[in-house]
């Protein structure tokens, strides 16, 4: 009689701290044993020449998220989580976004309806707060945090989402009391509005001007202000989708003062530049996201901060809008002015391959750091560790068997999202996920999806340890 449900043999296991040769046994959806020469499994997987990694945790992606401008998020929980799994991700944390005037619980209920029966892998929700009424800060948000929605995003820009500093402080205070992680989109809305009006008045409507409307100082100022608010409220925060040096310097400065300020970056800031927005005709719209991609010097600063420990997590910020689509990038036709183009790039499937190839294979970061940035730290950041994010006895058997040597030229045709382009078309990478297990179930079997929609479970998050304020030192 087999000792395990599944045994993965002869692989090289990598965690955030160690790389070692071992077999891994799975029973009842959990990791049951790690060791040499394990007993037999009902299913045996040979991982010779492969890496065995904890499944990726993509803690910033947008799936089936409704918007107020008529645009359509192209991926729902089925297509989005399938693409995620093909890319080696086994947990996603998208956003339940509140419209102004909407009770927060209604936003969460709506989002559960969207996810129910569709996800192929496990998922949790962040909240997006756009209307922090006294009812919300006093009752609704604390109750939801206690129910397992232990992180929320705050926007300092976008007219329909942005909060003023007083509102941000009120929310940070709730996060402090209840033990939730605040994620901050740090760009100065008024600076952007002023610059946008000037560009439009000069007839500059093409996609390339998106980057000119949001230069680095717009992000640097808001990052600094967010850090100051976190200091005032005495609570950790995470600055999301950090694009370059000046914002990194603010985070580094705060960390140097002993503050718990965390940073997230994304593959678009490692391999795209502002130049990609200059592409022929309207093509640059494919790379419109906020903050925008910067230049090579800023890419280098992002890599330094990844290697140097300033960043804590790498997410995709998958925001899927189709290109040739009146509900996508061409919301107002093929000449849509830059300020009306839906913001965001798709990348849920390419997150691990790009960081692995550009980071690990090129010697910019080590394998353990790769695991930490893509899996362990996001699980810790949002209260899912040790269930997710590690290869440990008792943890969910969410595992990626990764071929470190497979050479792939990324094309949209090979991807599984519901978007008609990838900003990474033609990018050559080395290394690709081969087989993916979620709670011991095969989801991707050597490049073929074998899981049914709806097998993914909703995860309630614990209050994250990392969201705790620094202890007072006597
Ligand atoms: O351009 C971006 N980043 N779109 C997605 C929404 C957000 O702010 O993360
Ligand atoms: Zn954002
Ligand atoms: Zn986002």
From TrEMBL:
What cofactor does this chain's UniProt record say it requires?
A: Zn(2+)
Q: Which UniProt keywords apply?
A: Hydrolase, Metal-binding
Q: What are the transmembrane regions?
A: none
InterPro entries, from UniProt?
Amidohydro-rel (IPR006680), Hydantoinase/dihydroPyrase (IPR011778), Metal-dep_hydrolase_composite (IPR011059), Metal_Hydrolase (IPR032466), Metallo-dep_Hydrolases_sf (IPR050378)
A Gene Ontology molecular function term for this protein is: dihydropyrimidinase activity
Class in the EC hierarchy, top level = hydrolase
Q: What is its EC number?
A: 3.5.2.2
Q: Where is the Amidohydrolase-related domain?
A: 51-443
PANTHER family associated with the record: COLLAPSIN RESPONSE MEDIATOR PROTEIN, HYDRANTOINASE/DIHYDROPYRIMIDINASE FAMILY MEMBER
> Which family does the similarity line name?
Belongs to the metallo-dependent hydrolases superfamily. Hydantoinase/dihydropyrimidinase family.
For this entry, the protein name equals Dihydropyrimidinase
> To which species is this protein native?
Azospirillum picis
